[in-house]
Amino acid sequence: MNFFAILSRYITRQLLANFFIVLFAILGIILMFDTIESLRRVSGREDVTFWFTIQYAVTRITKTVEIVFPFVLMVAAMITFWRLSKNNEFVIIRSTGVSIFGFLYPLIIATFLLGIANITLINPISARMFELHETLSYRLQSRNPNAVLFSSKGLWIREATNDGKILLIQAKGLRQDDDKSVWMRDVMITELNETAQIKKSYNASFATLDGNIFHLKDVKVMVSGEPVQTLADYAYETTINVQRIKENFIEPEAISFWQLPDTIQFYEKAGFSARQHRMRYLNLLVSPFLLIGMLMLAAVFMLQNTLRGSAIMWRVVISIVTGFTFYFSSQVVYAFGINGYIPVWFAVTAPTVMIWLISISLLIQSDEV
Predict the structure, then answer these.
(1) Which of 133, 216, 235, 362 has a CB 3.0–4.6 Å from the CB of 59, allowing a cystine?
(2) Backbone angles phi, psi at 177, to 5 degrees
(3) pLDDT, tens digit, 9 for 90 and up, residues 296-311
(4) Are residues 8 and 114 in the same domain?
(5) Contacts of 79 (CB under 8 A, 6+ apart)
(6) In a domain? residue 264
(7) Residues 195, 200, 206, 212, CA torsion sign
(8) Residue range 45-66, pLDDT digits in tens
(9) Residue 120 domain flag
C-alpha cells in the first residue's frame, strides 16, 4: 500500500479526533456555565420548567460555535503536531524525504472540507438555533409560553416591485404566534412611483400577513385628488413573507448561509444597504481558508524536530497569543469594512491573506533548515 496514503490517513485521523475532543470539551464547559447562569435567571419562576432552561442554554451555545471554531482547529493542530514531534514521528517522516508541505497536504485538504461542512451544515443549524434562542428569550421575558416573535418597536420595510412601484410598509407593533402568519396593528402601506411621489396609501388598524398577502382590516384607502375610501377588509398582495420580517429583526449572523444570497438581493432591490449581509456571506466563504491559515500557524510553532522542556510551553504560549492577536486584529479590520472605511472584499480577505503569507514564509524557512 502507498506509504503516503497510509501517512495521510494516520495524521488526518489524529487531527480530526483531537478537533472533536477539544470542540466538545470547550462547548461542554461553556454549556455548564450557561446552564448555571440560566438557572440563576429563572430562580423563583414557577412558570419556567427545567426543560425550558436546558433549551435556553443549549440554543445559546450555538452563538459561540463559530467564534471558537478557528481556535479549536488551531489547538487541535497544536496537540497533533506536539505529539508527532514528542514521539519523534515527525523526524522519521522527514527522514523519508517528505517536505513540510507534503506532510501538511492531507491535513490542509481535511481542514478545508471541515470548513465547507461548517458553512453548509453547521451554520444553518446555528442560525436556526439562534432564532429559537431569541424566541425563548422573549417567552421568558413576556411569560407567554406560545409567543414566537414580537416587536414593540414596530416594522419599517421598503419594497421595490417589478412594475416600478416602491412600497413603504409600516406597523407600530407586530406579533407572530405561529410559523405562517404575522399579526400587526396600525399598519400603513404607501405606494410611491419612480420619482418617489405618493400614489396611494392604505391605512389599516389591524392586519395579518399570511403567505405573501396582507389581510387589512378597517382600511382607509387614500388616493391623491380623490375622496377617502373606507373598506372593512382588503387583501394586498406583496413579495414580503414571514421570513423577510424575521430577518428585519435579526443580525446577519442569524441568517443561514443558504439564505444570505436571497437576503442580499432582497435588500439591495428594496434600496437598503446590504453591506453587513454581504460581508457576512463573504466571511463565510473565506472561513475554510482561515481554518487552513490557523492550521499552518500551529505548524509554524509546533512542528519541530526536537521539542523538549520549557521550549514546548513557550511555543504554546506564543502560538496562542499570536492566534488571539490575529483574531482581534481581524475584528478591527472587519469593523472598518462594516462602517464603509475600506472595501468589503478587502476587510474580509486581508486578515486571512496575511496569516497565509506569514505562515507560508515561516514554513519555507523551517523546511530549508
Answers:
(1) 133
(2) -110, -5
(3) 988 888 876 555 555 6
(4) yes
(5) 18, 22
(6) no
(7) negative
(8) 766 777 777 777 777 787 777 7
(9) yes
- Beta-strand runs (E) in 132-238: 149-151, 155-160, 166-176, 181-192, 198-210, 213-223, 229-237
Considering the domain architecture, whether residues 29 and 98 belong to the same structural domain is answered as: yes
**Residue for cell digits 416573535?**
149
Three-class secondary structure assignment of 244-289: HHHHCCCCHHHCCCCCHHHHHHHHHHCCCCCHHHHHHHHHHHHHHH
Alpha carbon 282 to chain centroid distance? 11
Range of the domain at 207: 162-238
In a domain, 111, yes or no: yes
Q: What is the pTM of this model?
A: 0.72
C-alpha span between 262 and 277 (Å, rounded): 10
Range among 27-31, 87-91, 127-131 with highest mean pLDDT value = 27-31
User: Which residues have CB under 8 Å from 103's CB, separation 6+?
Assistant: 7, 11, 90, 93, 94, 303
Residues 174 and 322 in one domain: no
178 neighbors 287 (Cβ within 8 angstroms): no
Write the CA distances from 272 to 264, 267, 277, 296, integer angstroms: 9, 5, 11, 39
Is there a contact between 337 and 278 (Cβ–Cβ < 8 Å)? no
**Cβ(151)–Cβ(173) under 8 Å?**
yes
How far, in Å, CA of 232 to CA of 248, rounded? 29
Neighbours of 167 (CB within 10 A): 19
Q: Whole-angstrom Cα distance, residue 158 to residue 267?
A: 9
Looking at the structure, tell me whether residues 356 and 305 fall in a common domain.
yes
